[in-house]
Specification:
two-stranded antiparallel ribbon
Length: about 525
C-alpha cells in the first residue's frame, strides 16, 4: 500500500500514514463522489422538491415524511458495519461490501425507472400551471412505489457508505495527531462535491412548467433523473473494484465477538454522552414545518433551475468551509464552531421565512440563497463532527461498527425531526394548499406561527451542543480513558433508541399512508 514517510507518530493505530492521493488509494475519494451524488437526494430538499412537492403536489406533512422514510433504511447500516468489520470476503473487509452495496443500488434505481410514470396533479395551460384544473387527483399516491424502490437503492448506497467510511476511519487513525482529521475533511469535501452530479440533472432537466419551472416543453423527467443515479452507481461499483485499495487480512473475527465489542462500547459512559448528543441535537436541529414546501412553491415560487444553481453554490461553499477548517481550524473548539454556525443560521433562515410569509420580500433568489445555504452549511458541519467523533471514539477493528452505530443514531433522529415538525405544524393547518392560495392576514399568521415554533425547536439544539459535545479530540481520548462501563448505560441507550425508532417509524408511516395522513398525530388537520 502507498504510504507516506511519516510512520504514524502519535497516531491512534501506530501504523504508517496512508497517502490517499496515490492512484492505488484514490478509490476511496472516488467512492465518496458517487455516494454524494446518490445521497444528495436525501440531504438536499431541493432534490425531491420538483417531483414530489410540485409535480405530484404532496401535502406538506406527507412531503416531509419522504426524506424521513428514505433515511430510515440507513438505520440498518449498523448491521452492515458489523459484517464489514468481522467477515472479510476473499480476504478483504471493505471493497466486497462496497461492491455489494452498489449492486443493490443499481437494482433499486433500475426498478424505480421501470415504474409507470404518473400524470401531474395540476394541468398546464398556456405554458402555466393551471391550479383550477386537476388532472390526476391521486398523483400523491402514485409516488409510493418510487419511494419504495428509492429506499431500496439508498439502502445499497448506505452499505457502500458504511464500508467506505470504515476505510476512511482506518486511514485517518494512521494520521499523526497534528494532522488527524484532515483526510476525513477531504473525504467529506469529495462527498459533498459528488452532490453536484445529482444537482445538474434535477436543476436543469426538471425545469419545465410541470415541475415548477419556466420552460414550456418537458425536456427531462424524474425517470431520467433516476437513470442518472443508476449510472452514478455503476461508476461507483467500477471505482470500488478497480481503484480502491483494501489491505488483505487473514483475521476473521466472529460476529459474536463484534457484538460483544459493540455492547462494551454502548456501556461506556463516554459513548453514552456522544450518543445522547446526537439523540437530542439531530431531531431538534432538523425540525422543519410542513409549511416549508408550500412556502417555496406558492410564496417564493422557486424554479428547479434556480434551486439547482443555488445548490451548486451551496455545495461549493460547503467544500470551501471543509477545506478551510482542515487547513486552519483543525484544532479549534468543536462547540464554538457548531454554536457559531448554528445561531446565525437560525436567525438568518427565520428572518427570510418571515419576510417571505408576510410578503415583504417574495423573491425566489432571496429565499433559497439564504434559507438553503444556512441549512446546507450546518448539516455539513454536523456531519463532519460526527465523522471526527467516530474516528476518536472507535477501537481497533471496530471502525465500521462504531461509525455504523453513530450513523444509525443519526438516522433515527431524522424521521423523529420530521414527525416533530409535522405535529408542531398540525394545529395551524398549514399542510394543504388553501392557506397559500387565499393568502389572507390570518393565513400568514398561522403559517408564521408554525414556522416560528419549529425554529424554536432548532434553537433548543444549542443546549445539546454546549453540554454534550466534546471540545476537541483530546477531550474525547480523555473521556475514553476515564470512562466507566456499566450495564445500565447500555440498557438505557438501547431502550431510548428502540423507543424513538419505533415512534418515528410509526408517525412517519401514518403521514405517508393515504388513509391516516389526515390524523393530527401524523401532521394532518383531522379526519
Amino acid at each position: 500500500m502507498s504510504v507516506s514517510m511519516n510512520q504514524g507518530v502519535e497516531s491512534l493505530s501506530g501504523l504508517p500514514e496512508v497517502n490517499p492521493w496515490r492512484p492505488r488509494t484514490f478509490g476511496l475519494f472516488a467512492n465518496k463522489i458517487f455516494q454524494g451524488s446518490c445521497m444528495g437526494f436525501v440531504w438536499s430538499r431541493a432534490a425531491s422538491y420538483p417531483f414530489f412537492g410540485v409535480y405530484l403536489n404532496m401535502d406538506g406533512h406527507r412531503y416531509n415524511s419522504i426524506r424521513a422514510v428514505l433515511m430510515v433504511v440507513w438505520a440498518v447500516k449498523l448491521v452492515a458495519s458489523v459484517f464489514t468489520d468481522s467477515v472479510p470476503i476473499f480476504g478483504r473487509r471493505r471493497i466486497p461490501y462496497m461492491a455489494i452495496g452498489w449492486s443493490l443500488a443499481i437494482f433499486g434505481y433500475f426498478a424505480a425507472a421501470l415504474q409507470p410514470y404518473p400524470e401531474p396533479y395540476y394541468g398546464v395551460s398556456n405554458c402555466t400551471r393551471d391550479t383550477s384544473t386537476i388532472v390526476n387527483p391521486g398523483a400523491a399516491d402514485d409516488g409510493a412505489m418510487y419511494i419504495l424502490w428509492l429506499s431500496a437503492a439508498l439502502f445499497g448506497v448506505g452499505v457502500t457508505d458504511v464500508a467506505s467510511d470504515a476505510l476512511a476511519v482506518e486511514y485517518s487513525r494512521r494520521e499523526p495527531v497534528e494532522r488527524r482529521g484532515r483526510l476525513m475533511a477531504w473525504a467529506h469535501i469529495f462527498n459533498w462535491g459528488g452532490g453536484l452530479l445529482m444537482i445538474l440533472p434535477i436543476g436543469v432537466g426538471l425545469n419545465s412548467v410541470k415541475y415548477g419551472g419556466s420552460i414550456c416543453e418537458e425536456i427531462f423527467t424524474f425517470r431520467g433523473v433516476i437513470v442518472c443515479f443508476c449510472v452514478f452507481s455503476i461508476c461507483g461499483l467500477l471505482s470500488s473494484l478497480l481503484i480502491t485499495h483494501d489491505e488483505r487480512t487473514k483475521v476473521r473475527l466472529s460476529i459474536m465477538s463484534q457484538l460483544r465489542g459493540m455492547w462494551r462500547t454502548m456501556k461506556s459512559s463516554a459513548f453514552l454522552q456522544i450518543a445522547f448528543y446526537f439523540i437530542i441535537e439531530v431531531p431538534l436541529s432538523d425540525v422543519k414545518s410542513s409549511a416549508t414546501v408550500k412556502i417555496k412553491k406558492n410564496f417564493a415560487r422557486i424554479e428547479p433551475a434556480v434551486g439547482g444553481a443555488v445548490a451548486v453554490l451551496n455545495v461549493c461553499l460547503v467544500m470551501f468551509i471543509m477545506w478551510a477548517y482542515s487547513r486552519w481550524f483543525l484544532h479549534r473548539n468543536w462547540r464554538t464552531l457548531a454554536i457559531g454556525v448554528k445561531i446565525p443560521a437560525i436567525v438568518i433562515a427565520l428572518s427570510v421565512e418571515l419576510l417571505t410569509i408576510f410578503d415583504v420580500v417574495r423573491n425566489q433568489y432571496f429565499y433559497i440563497i439564504a434559507e438553503e445555504s444556512c441549512c446546507f452549511v450546518f448539516i455539513a458541519v454536523l456531519n463532519y463532527l460526527m465523522i471526527l467523533l467516530a474516528t476518536e471514539i472507535c477501537d481497533e477493528s471496530q471502525e465500521g461498527m462504531t461509525f455504523g452505530l453513530l450513523m444509525s443514531i443519526w438516522t433515527i433522529g431524522a424521521p423523529l425531526s420530521t414527525a416533530l415538525g409535522n405535529m408542531v405544524s398540525a394545529p395551524f393547518d398549514v399542510s394543504g394548499e388553501s392557506r397559500y392560495l387565499s393568502d389572507t392576514d390570518g393565513d400568514r399568521v398561522a403559517v408564521a406561527s408554525a414556522v416560528c415554533l419549529c425554529y424554536a425547536c432548532n434553537a433548543l439544539s444549542v443546549l445539546a451542543i454546549y453540554f454534550l459535545l466534546p471540545a476537541q479530540k483530546e477531550q474525547v481520548q480523555r473521556m475514553k480513558k476515564e470512562a466507566t462501563h456499566r450495564t445500565r448505560n447500555g440498557v438505557l441507550l438501547v431502550s431510548v433508541l428502540t423507543t424513538l425508532f419505533l415512534a418515528a417509524i410509526g408517525l412517519n408511516l401514518l403521514s405517508s399512508h393515504p388513509a391516516t395522513q389526515c390524523l393530527p398525530l401524523a401532521g394532518g388537520s383531522g379526519c
